[in-house]
Predict the structure.
Amino acid sequence: MRSKKPETEKMRVSFDLDEVLFVSPMTHKTEPELRFPLNRIYKERLRLGTPDLIRELQRLGYEVWVYTSSFRSEGYIRHLFRCYGVQFDGIVNGTRHMKEVQGNNKTTLPQKLPNRYRISLHIDDEEVICSAASQYGFRAFQLNAQDDDWKEKIIQRAEQIKKVERIQRVHDIR
Ligand SMILES: [Mg+2]
């Protein structure tokens, strides 16, 4: 008998950083900037509602990860978000992806392969990443422009996927 994925494993949701959680106040509603001198160290501005959404997802029983193709260090990302009271369950940056996913592969893989990290839903602004999703076997939600309902949409999508995965697990379908 094939072993089933244990019921206790939390579903993972990941977020891209640039243009998704990090946005420009010129084009998007943003969280207030950090207080001096932190605002000089961490210049990125968070999309309005980011800390709420991440904490809400974690409260609902999801693991929340960052999957970025940027080379910001894991420490930098952790510290920045800690200033907003947010703690990620996992971080994949460009360096980690190159090492663990691309590795010595002769063919160039997509910039992100969330399913390699058992991530069930990835949120990204880039069309090229979202359209690679079905081909490479992961699920993506495209988020780009200012959207007042982004939190609700993402929670709804995550809840749908959670249900589908539960059914797949019960029936042991892959
Ligand atoms: Mg991006």
Q: What stands out?
A: The CA atoms of residues 11 and 62 lie 5 Å apart. The chain has one domain: 12-171. The two ends are 14 Å apart (CA to CA).
